[in-house]
Amino acid sequence: MLETLNISNYALIDETEIGFHPGLNIITGETGAGKSIILGALSMLLGSKTDSKKNSLTGKKTIVEAEFDISDFPALTSFFDENDLENPSDRKCIVRRETSPSGRTRSFINDSPVALTKLQDLTERLTDIHSQNHNQLLAKPEFQLEVIDTLASNSETLADYEQKYSAFRESLRKLKKTRLRIERARNDEDFLRYQLGQFDKIDLKPDEFEDLESELKTLSGAAELKNSLRIALDSLSEGHENALGLIEKAKEAFDEAAESLDGDEDISDRLEKVAIELNDIVSRLNEIDSDLSADPAYLERIEDRLSAIRTLMKKHSVVTYSELLDAELAIREKIESIENADITLSTLEKDAKRKYAAAKEAATILTARRKEAAISFEDELLKKAIPLGMKNLRCKVKIEPAEISPTGMDKVTFTFAFNKNQELSEVGGKASGGEISRLMLCVKSIVAGKMKLPTVIFDEIDTGVSGEVAAKIGEMMRDISKTIQVIAITHLPQVAAMGDHHFKVFKTDDETSTHTNITELDKNGRIEELAMMLGGGNDKDAAIANAQSLLNKKETTCNG
After folding, report:
1. Which long-range contacts (CB under 8 A, 24 or more apart) does 532-537 make?
2. What would the DSSP string read from start to end of 434-453?
3. Spatial distance between the Cα atoms of 115 and 27, rounded to a whole number of angstroms
4. Calpha distance 441→444 (Å, rounded)
5. What are the distances in angstroms from CA 79 to CA 115, 118, 122, 126, 450?
6. Other CB atoms within 10 A of residue 49 CB
7. Which pLDDT band holds residue 284 (cuts at 50, 70, 90)?
8. In the predicted model, is pLDDT for residue 482 greater than 70?
9. What is the model's pLDDT at position 75?
10. Which contiguous run of DSSP H or E holds residue 44?
């Protein structure tokens, strides 16, 4: 329920706060007083496009804020959860929209900034504004279907159908995608098999590339070491001229000259010791060399294998070995899909048919419920519309088979005849604006008890009627207000008299400007306003008596 509406710096409104109540809230005022300004501000708050001309002439920021009591609407909890907004513990929801003089707008829910789309999503669940401009909805198939589904209480049934329909659509999407993939694979089958032959020839193993690179590094290091050892061994013992041979030659030469050298006989022993040490070194170097494995042929095989893998990686435009394995797997899967295409497609087709059957069964339940609700709607509409001056009205809701869609397998069409000699036809040029307005009011009245909305706003939808019909419209609005808060902007005293609370919009002037104001009327204020709306002329007392009579009639009707 809309509890308060605050408007600052909007059009001719400087600052005003309106406190609304449960039941039927009436707003009246002379033509041009500013009733449309109130509605415009509320429309802005609910997410409609802002009108820069309505911004304050003073250049101040426009602010429109409303507080809703959502105690009786626990379903809104999901909205706050889904949008990461704090769920108010006091069940009060404050919605605010601000517009700067430059035209920049900001939206808030419970003081948290939100995108305009989120604001609109919430406010669509909180209010329903209906004006003569909305009468065209009556001709729209989506609205007609929504009315029937509302009367049939189809929310759970429709949710079940939507789930099955989504599953069916997903199965179709998967079937189409798979069929296209197989078709493309078949077109490339020869090339795919050629590529697979290359993979089969090289026979890749998991982690092979990394292992080969590591082994190549190790073996390459061993080859370099063996080459160094070979140079050392050649220098010490195996070369044409080596250290051991030269030492032996030096020892022999010294031994021959030893007799002539006095006191240097230990040189021969020392050379012998050097030879022994070098031989020991040579033995150790040979041991190290024999421990090293660096088969040149094996090393070459590793290098060839790595080169073949790198060539394959280049052909498939991949950087890593794991990507190459993925490429091989993808080719194998494509070929496998070609080989198993008939089985795969048959399985997917059966799944789609099964899910279509489930969706169709759920749609059949929807159809039955809609047809039952349509009959009830026809009867109820006539009961409400005939007293509103449409005594010759006939109505038929046609529910015809249609292609499966997100809403079921039905085409719902409202057809009407407003005169005895008319054939039933869709809403169009045969109905006057006033007749369509009254029809819409009847529709709203019928679905009011099942609408998941706190507030309904009627903006002068009673234009073009008077007398007893106007009184019936007022009674209908009052009946709607028993289950939903109703705010009605009207120019008819018969409708205004039915209100539980009455607000008057009026203008005041100061030295420089005109201002729009709104005030809630007490009983005497209501009598005076109704008398003025009745147009008493010079006979003010008679107008006041008539106004009092309307209020008394309302009290009698309500109590009765």
Report:
1. 533/28, 533/491, 533/492, 533/493, 533/496, 534/493
2. HHHHHHHHHHHHHHGGG---
3. 31
4. 5
5. 14, 9, 7, 12, 20
6. 8
7. confident
8. yes
9. 74
10. helix 35-45
H/E stretch holding 279 reads helix 266-291
Residue 119 corresponds to which tokens in the numbers above? 């604001």
Q: Please, what is the Cα angle at 184 between 183 and 187, to 5 degrees?
A: 90
For the chain, the C-alpha Rg in angstroms (whole number) is: 47
User: Are the beta carbons of 235 and 242 closer than 8 angstroms?
Assistant: yes
Query: Looking up tokens 């005849």, which residue turns up?
Result: 417
pLDDT of residue 291: 57
Tell whether the torsion through CA atoms of 442, 444, 449 and 450 is positive or negative: positive
Quick one: DSSP state of residue 461?
A: T
| Structure confidence by residue, pLDDT tens digits, 327-357 | 999 888 888 878 878 888 899 999 999 999 9
Task: Read off the pLDDT of residues 382-427 as tens digits, 9 standing for 90 and up.
Answer: 999 998 888 889 999 999 999 999 999 999 999 998 888 888 888 7
Q: What is the pLDDT of residue 54?
A: 59
Instruction: Report the distance separating Cα 300 and Cα 313, nearest Å.
Output: 20
Contacts 24+ apart (CB under 8 A), 375-383: 376/151, 377/147, 377/148, 377/151, 377/446, 380/446, 381/439, 381/442, 381/443, 381/446
Place of tokens 């050649």: 234
